[in-house]
Amino acid sequence: MLEHALKGSKKYWGWIFSLSIIIVIGVFFYLKQFAFGLGITGLSRDVSWGFYIAQLTFLVGVAASGVMVVLPYYLHDYKQFGKLTILGEFLAIAAVAMCILFVFVDVGQPVRLMNILLYPSPSSILFWDTVVLSGYMLINIVISHVVLDSERKSIPPPKWIKPVIIISIPWAISIHTVTAFLYAGLAARPFWMTAVLAPRFLASAFSSGPALLLVLVFIIKRITKFDPGKEAVQKLALIITYAMAANIFFILMEFFTAFYSSIPEHIHHFQYLFFGLEGHTTLVPWMWASAILGVTSLVLLFIPKIRKNEDYLFIICVAIFISIWIDKGLGMVVTGFIPTPLGDVVDYWPTIPEALISLSIWAIGFFLITVFYKIALSVRKEVMT
Amino acid sequence: MYDSGKIILGIVIFIALFTFPTWYLFTNGEPKPMPDLVFPENEDQKECVYNSEYMRASHMDLLNEWRDKVVREGQRTFTTSKGKNFEMSLTKTCLGCHSNKAQFCDKCHDYLDVTPYCWDCHVDPSQLENQ
Amino acid sequence: MDITRRKLLKLAGLGALGLTAGKYAKIFAKESFNKISSMNIGSTKRWAMVVDVRKCLVKEDCRDCINACHTTHNVPDLGNLKDEVKWIWKEDFENVFIEQENHYLEENLKEKRVPIFCNHCDNPPCVRVCPTQATWKREEDGIVMMDWHRCIGCRYCVVACPYGSRSFNWRDPRPFVKETNSDFPTRSKGVVEKCTFCEKRLAEGLAPACVEACKEKALIFGNLNDPKSEVRELLKENFSIRRKPGLGTEPEIYYLV
Question: SS3 string of chain A?
Fold first, then answer.
């Protein structure tokens, strides 16, 4: 099936080529980082996790979101998602691959990464995150390969794949819950010490992930004959709507507990994000952009006429993706460190090498998605003819 | 086998490239001379923690064992089979006798193109004079 | 025998997996045995430090303890707040005891710069989160140790420490070590470091470097499990506070104010 990725139009190869350029630039900067150390990034003694880990956190959510098409189709026989499940599984593989790459570029001694597996530490959530993420990647590789292969041969998939697919459903929930646990159990960081963090993560994942899936589906619809069907698209839009509503509701809950209790330790982080703290306002415009994009998108999604218009839906999905990316990929991680445990307000902003390395990992992810989707759609085309 | 001609040719080329270091040496003149190590001079530095043969083959394993014993178990004393006590320290014990790292450790390491990263952290006192 | 390209790739992958699985099993077996054999039996100490803030000089910005520690352990001086590495340093009283919000704090404490360093907690969150056990709490004396050979530089411990005691080497520290002490290694870039209660000096029967260097004798080190130790006597007779006690970390640095 891999040979389908090697045959394509000029546009296909042009896209692959552009992604490769970005990837090569990123590799070049990563070699600089490997030689110099992580000091080449904007990270500091006070803000020790930043852009890389934020991308990882966001992408675990995207990976988990495959479950939003898998669950209805396999557990509730919702046939309309039949054309989408493979796309969701491939998206999950690409997203987890990006997560692993972001871990690789973030650690100070990447050649020692195997120590996590050589010296298992069950008390460390990072250990469990490694285990569940690797497992999820493996599961999705097996599922997508077996299912697509069976489709190619026009035979039903083997019976043993069904329990594997069923397991992938709670497993998907677990990867993002465990990722939330990375943050939610740390007494040192009151901004993250909230029981609602895991539910928030899941809600934002189940809106941003399917939003990305829909965007990809709309793009594929433009350039190939692929059409998942109006009902599938609308059902997915509805899922995004409810998930986004839950996400915004959870955020408002956070505001209430922080500001009503007026505990400085809790308020300061939200003040920093939305109003600035002691003159530091780096993230303020970003957070308001995220808020406006998010709330506007949700309100528009509630209006059936707009939701049913696929052109508007495309823009809304992009807006939701960006809004949640800012919230999770920029706001959440960094703000845990500001103010510091000693009460100082510091700044963080990714440097150019840091941004380019991150961009190249995103390019690798899109490279994988392009190749996987090309294979899936070519196999389907072959079967239809 | 499909394309058996190309595949067999490819395998032959691969084996030739892979074994290049070995056959190049025998066909092209003299191999580099074996490194001549400079051993410590003083009488009281004549006895190492193990014999030369063992050290030549396994000093890396020994150092790993020492590392775990000192750092993770807090044990610092090593007793040889003859009952002599040494402190398990790369800088203090090993380099205490083999003080000229360049003439001893580096000679074999350079010959074999090995770069142990121990020296990223562990101090070579002979380098400190240059500070 | 006819074999498809796909079957060959699958076989090769499974073969590689099988080889590594065998090796993995051996490593697991060895590691668990190591753990059992290194458990200590015998009397345990509980090292702790009492910091007498009243004695710590307020003028002259005394740095005796800091200089002693950083020189002994080859701690680099990176000269900027972003990359700095520090094992012990001084902060304003109100930042050290940030949970003690008090607008009308005793005047002479307002200007006090209090020395802070790793608290060697009894319930250390940093140890709990380390994915490789590169940091752990020693059974025999309670010191929270660092293994710089194993650390992968993930900085989870830095994130988990409620006191900001840990520093990461954002770049190679060696050019920034003013005077190398050949009695102690430096560290490489990419690992986390912190105060280790001078466990090497303790093994040689010496007091921690900071304790020895303090001219005012404001740092008192001792064994909490010994009811007759100086630290126990001081704690019995003086009012002491710890940093962020409500978090349950059980820090073992006691400040006499």
Answer: CHHHHHCCCHHHHHHHHHHHHHHHHHHHHHHHHHHHCHHHCCCCCCCCCCHHHHHHHHHHHHHHCCHHHHHHHHHHCCHHHHHCHHHHHHHHHHHHHHHHHHHHHHCCCHHHCCHHHHCCCCCCHHHHHHHHHHHHHHHHHHHHHHHHHHHHCCCCCCCCHHHHHHHHHHHHHHHHHHHHHHHHCCCCCCCCCCCCHHHHHHHHHHHHHHHHHHHHHHHHHHHCCCCCCHHHHHHHHHHHHHHHHHHHHHHHHHHHHHHHHCCHHHHHHHHHHHCCECCECCCHHHHHHHHHHHHHHHHHHHCHHHHCCHHHHHHHHHHHHHHHHHHHHHHHHHHCCCCCCCCCCCCCCCCHHHHHHHHHHHHHHHHHHHHHHHHHHHHHHHHHC
